[in-house]
From TrEMBL:
Gene Ontology BP annotations: cellulose catabolic process
Official protein name in the record: beta-glucosidase
Keyword vocabulary terms for this entry: Carbohydrate metabolism, Glycosidase, Hydrolase, Polysaccharide degradation
Pathway linked to the protein: Glycan metabolism; cellulose degradation
EC number: 3.2.1.21
Family: Belongs to the glycosyl hydrolase 3 family.
Domain PA14: 411-576
Tree of life domain: Eukaryota
InterPro entries per record: Cellulose_deg_GH3, Fn3-like, GH, Glyco_hydro_3_AS, Glyco_hydro_3_C, Glyco_hydro_3_C_sf, Glyco_hydro_3_N, Glyco_hydro_3_N_sf
UniProt-listed Pfam families: Fn3-like, Glyco_hydro_3, Glyco_hydro_3_C, PA14
Length: 862
């Protein structure tokens, strides 16, 4: 029978028929991306795929070209649940089907506790309410498309360094009111099919083994019925996780839940067969949902495909432009190239031509297409005859840029030729010259092989890569960089240029398995095609302090980068000269996937290298300097007062350049609002001083005062507040009115409606977000944040002079706090204050009303 017939399966009957070994097999994955099939009982395997900002598919190495969407911080900055649901339904779910995946490993709903967090770009917001509502919309969109969503990382995984060992020490109230709340809201409003546990401990216990979080909170209080899975290699025992209620261990490589270990644990009476079948039942229920949601996937051929519709491109462009936040505008934007007022524009900055798609790690994918900021700007200006000049100005990369667009094969194809080679034996370091399989074209120079090496090859194997650098117009010194998760050497024209084989320095690349980048310089001759040859072996080289020559069985990889050697002063001078000759300057600067990535945290909020100096110098010679910043979280802008305009563009995916151009030249009126606070300095960040792991402990000492709540509490002025964003028009908010609060003790419910009017008082059509914040009674004996976001509404496409009425509905979440004395949610008696405006700072919260709760109550669940 076809696998999709499992949609009609009787789970009780199948659980009854399972042998113990079959049940054990179901509780852990197979390979890197699949659940276990039980062919005897017609149980199909389900494929999962990473998905925070796009669906990569099975392969990091030579992956299927895919749509890369704006980062989660960008989606959060839309403040638009409707558009995020549209992303899930119209883009993510169809992409999952094209990758033959039934379950998406997204969204990420951790809190941006600190912008230094390596995966901050993957989470929606520093605010739990905004994060929860956007997350629920994401899940609803994906699941309406027949694909399951997996909300992650449950919970307290808010930094990357030491993530598998650190203990997040969080007070009960902060845990409930800040860190669990996004997951709670997503469960209430969307019911995700799966939840992925975090790597870390919370209050002493690894989450994957924590009966309090998994059984008491998820299963008992929230009545969660979906699957609970581990993060990849996020299990640390056999019996603890199974007893705690973790249904599925992922992946199936180097796993704990082998037949041998689990059976031995059962024999030791640490587990019972019933424990195993309870976990297997939930896996089967997920497989049934997948068969019901998208049966064509299970009946399909399993091949991954790319389909690029023009309607999808337009949608991606619109979503990207709607997430962009206008931070400053001294009447210079939008730039108007029409009519000849602007004849020349200088584009400068390290990000202008770079392929900056998203943050790094599991969010990374191979984009089906990419529009750079430079290309988007140039395309927008070409019809108007505007000259566009360019200078990098200051280099922004952490590791040398990859070279996939600079290499070609002997026959002129883009890329190089790779061959796999077995060794004389599993223990030998001697590779055979004869390729193990036929040579293949490789169009990447960041080659994260992961588990995509050939089946049947020896345990130790070698990969050889050969191509040719496209000829240069003039003689130039070229610096190469080589990183290996394993060991590697680089030869140019037969000369050894880099030895990262004999001895290494350990680094952070390839999920912490890679070396540091080793570099070497070679003189490239004008007009010559230089031969590039890399030999890589999946056995790590010894390093000082770590002589272990481990085999990279799950994270092998090699990365070749390079750039022409340039004098930093000359680059700056060139950019300044071009800026002085132009009618306006667009500086495109920021971070990239090297700086913001899974696996490690940032060390500073500053932009890299001499970027800040570049912006200062071009602004001095051109008063019309517009800065476009790219970063998944907050950065410092020491030159802010010197420039005419600042546009924050996050990571925008495939449509980056077109979306930026749409905003710069007025095709799109910016409507994004910051999903996190931009501090003036690192020391102002709430968790500063206790963000790191100290002897394995991360103390959440800021407690309830996360994000903007800290800035209000300490009366610290941020650089840009949470919820802030300008427009090319202006808005007026007025006439705030509240209905009488309604409390139903029988159902433990609360409701109140706030109505207000929004008027477009400016010259162009625009969209505005009404943000409602609640202050709890001053009579309370407990500490509460001064303001908490509890409702918002994006009012779209208001015409000049148009007024619309907005309704904001409040429920029990708007007035509840966690009572740690009685282990319950509680609503206090007293007078509550509501403030409504267009950002979180007091001067923007112009509408104020109050209401009284006379008869408070307690509640549990969701």
């Amino acid at each position: 029978m076809p696998p999709s017939d499992f949609a009609k399966a009787n789970i009780d009957e199948i659980v009854e028929q399972l042998t113990l070994d079959e049940a054990i097999s179901l509780t852990a994955g197979v390979g890197f991306w699949h659940t276990h099939a039980i062919e005897r009982l017609g149980v199909p395997a389900v494929k999962v795929s990473d998905g925070p900002n796009g669906i990569r598919g099975n392969h990091f190495f030579m992956g299927t070209p895919a749509k890369c969407l704006p980062s989660s911080t960008a989606l959060g900055a839309t403040w638009d649940p409707e558009v995020v649901e549209e992303v899930g339904l119209k883009l993510l779910a169809p992409e999952a089907k094209l990758r033959a995946a039934s379950l998406v490993l997204a969204p990420t709903s951790n809190i941006q506790r600190n912008p230094l967090g390596g995966r901050s770009f993957e989470s929606f917001s520093e605010d739990p309410y905004l994060s929860g509502i956007i997350s629920a919309s994401y899940v609803n969109g994906v699941q309406k498309g027949g694909i399951g969503a997996t909300i992650k990382h449950f919970v307290g995984n808010d930094k990357e360094d030491d993530r598998q060992g650190y203990d997040s020490i969080i007070s009960e109230r902060a845990l409930r009111e800040i860190y669990l709340l996004p997951f709670m809201l997503t469960q209430k409003y969307a019911a995700p099919w799966a939840i992925m546990t975090a790597y870390n401990r919370v209050n002493g216990v690894h989450v994957a083994e924590d009966p309090f979080l998994l059984k008491q909170v998820l299963r008992n209080e929230w009545k969660y019925k979906g699957l609970i899975m581990s993060d990849w290699f996020g299990m640390y025992s056999v019996d603890h996780g199974i007893k705690a209620g973790l249904d599925l261990e992922m992946p199936g490589i180097n796993k704990w839940r082998t037949l041998d270990l689990v059976n031995r644990t059962i024999q030791a009476r640490k587990l019972t067969p019933r424990d195993i079948k309870d976990r297997a039942r939930v896996v089967l229920e997920l497989v049934k949902k997948c068969a019901q949601g998208a049966p064509e996937i299970l009946d399909g051929d399993g091949e991954e495909r790319t389909v690029e519709l023009e309607s999808d491109k337009l949608l991606m462009r619109r979503i990207a432009s709607e997430s962009i936040v206008l931070l400053k505008n001294d009447n210079v934007l939008p730039l108007k190239p029409e009519g000849g007022a602007i004849k020349k524009i200088a584009v400068v900055g390290g990000n202008a031509k770079a392929q900056v798609l998203s943050g790094g790690g599991s969010a990374a994918l191979k984009a089906s297409y990419f529009i750079s900021p430079y290309d988007g700007i140039k395309a927008a200006l070409e019809p108007h005859g505007v000259e566009v000049t360019f200078s990098e100005g200051a280099r922004a990369y952490k590791t040398l840029p990859t070279l996939e667009w600079d290499l070609e094969t002997e026959t002129g194809e883009r890329g190089w030729i790779g061959t796999w080679h077995t060794h004389e034996s599993d223990d030998s370091m001697t590779a055979l010259d004869q390729p193990f399989i036929a040579p293949r074209l490789v169009d990447e120079t960041r080659i994260f092989i992961s588990t995509s090496y050939p089946k049947g090859i020896t345990k130790r194997w070698t990969m050889r890569l050969k191509g040719y650098l496209k000829p240069r117009e003039k003689d130039t010194n070229f610096e190469f960089g080589l990183i290996a998760a394993g060991r590697a050497k680089l030869w140019v024209d037969g000369q050894l240029v880099i030895d990262n084989w004999t001895r290494q320095r350990r680094g952070e690349a390839f999920f912490g398995s890679g070396s540091q980048e080793e570099t070497g310089v070679y003189l490239l001759k004008a007009g010559k095609k230089h031969e590039i040859y890399v030999e890589y072996c999946n056995v790590r080289a010894p390093a000082d302090g770590d002589e272990d020559e481990a085999i990279m069985d799950s994270n092998p990889g090699v990365r070749l980068g390079g750039a022409e050697v340039a004098n930093a002063d000359d680059l700056l001078s060139e950019a300044v000269k071009l800026a002085s000759e132009a009618d306006a300057v667009i500086a495109v600067v920021g971070l990239n996937a090297d700086w913001e990535t899974e696996g490690n945290d940032r060390r500073t909020l500053a932009l890299p290298g001499r970027t800040d100096e570049l912006v200062e110098k071009v602004a001095k010679v051109n008063s019309k300097t517009v800065v476009v910043t790219q970063a998944g979280s907050a950065i410092t802008l020491p030159w802010l007062d010197s420039v005419a305009a600042v546009v924050h563009a996050w990571y925008l995916g495939n449509a980056t350049g077109d979306a930026i151009a749409d905003v710069l030249f007025g095709k799109q009126n910016p409507s994004g609002k910051l999903s996190l606070t931009f501090p003036k300095r690192l020391e102002d960040v709430p968790s500063h001083g206790h963000f790191g792991s100290e002897n394995g402990k991360v103390r959440y000492a800021e407690d309830l005062f996360v994000g903007y709540k800290h800035y209000h509490h300490r009366n610290i002025e941020p650089l840009f507040p949470f919820g802030f964003g300008l427009s090319y028009t202006t808005f007026s908010l007025s006439n705030l009115q509240l209905s009488a609060p309604v409390i139903d003790h029988a159902t433990s419910s609360f409701s109140l409606t706030a109505t207000l009017s929004i008027t477009n008082t400016g010259p162009v059509t625009g969209s505005e977000v009404a943000q409602l914040y609640v202050s709890y009674p001053e009579t309370s004996e407990l500490t509460h944040a001064p303001l908490q976001l509890r409702a918002f509404k994006k009012v779209k496409d208001l015409q000049p002079g148009e007024t619309r009425e907005v309704k904001l509905e409040l429920d029990k979440y708007a007035v509840s706090y966690w009572n740690d004395r009685y282990q319950t949610w509680a609503v206090e008696n007293g007078e509550y204050e509501i403030k409504v405006g267009n950002s979180s700072v007091s001067k923007d919260l112009t509408l104020v009303q109050r209401f009284v709760v006379k008869d408070g109550f307690e509640w549990r669940g969701i």
